[in-house]
Amino acid sequence: MKVGCIGLGDIAQKAYLPVLALRPGVELHLQTRTPATLDRVAESLHVPLERRHTTLDSLLAANLDAAFVHAPTLVHPEIVTRLLQAGVPTYVDKPLAYELEDSARLVALAEERAVSLAVGFNRRHAPGYTQCADHPRELILMQKNRIGLPEEPRAMILDDFIHVVDTLRFLVPGEIDDVTVRARVRDGLLHHLVLQLAGDGFTALGVMNRLSGSAEEVLEVSGQDTKRQVVNLAEVVDHKGQPTVRRRGDWVPVARQRGIEQAVLAFLDAVRAGKVLSARDALETHELCERVVRAVQERSA
Known about the structure:
39% helix
């Protein structure tokens, strides 16, 4: 199976390439416009010269069976369009695009061409989070905080807060009938954001503070007098009277802990089986993010 990786930044190098490079039967092709980066990464993975590409045209000429896109978000629409038009099943690191119109167009193109399109919402595969789907979820609270990183609202929401939005959508136990957004914006930069989703019998809160003094991610689900807490995707604490702590094993790879390995394998298995994956549900997450962006813009106008 010929698999291309487009964009060789931190997320590709730390999370995706270590998984792809070790998969039996995968012929890995790399593409970036920066020759020095291409050679450095390729050498570290023992990728031969004929599988190193500095242009998308060269990569597509290799007749790929699948592709992973980890290029900057701004160029996602152009790259993904080319891949889908070429009939290449495509996995895109979130988001599909900054603008909802572009995301919707890509999903429609994939469906029109009957080509798989998947978005990298790895938390849906992270063991600590998938286990929460089996827990009572009358109240869901997710915090994903940063240190000293206030940012322009659309970029922050689509590049980072989108993980919070998608995780809440994944875990809510019913239909969402109420959406509330609160935010603090100063000098055009988003400092903190709170999203509340509610439905029959449940409330879900997503919080991001870009000036929190701590880089952390904490998920809590509770109901029926029990609570499960997942800290930084690694430590699971069950509360029912006395807390019980389960920590990630010393030899568990970070990519597996964060659900990236599972997401990659699920995508590749679908490609091998000829199963077409739809990004229609992922588009609903993008639609909700757009709603959040507009609410923040209205409050800061």
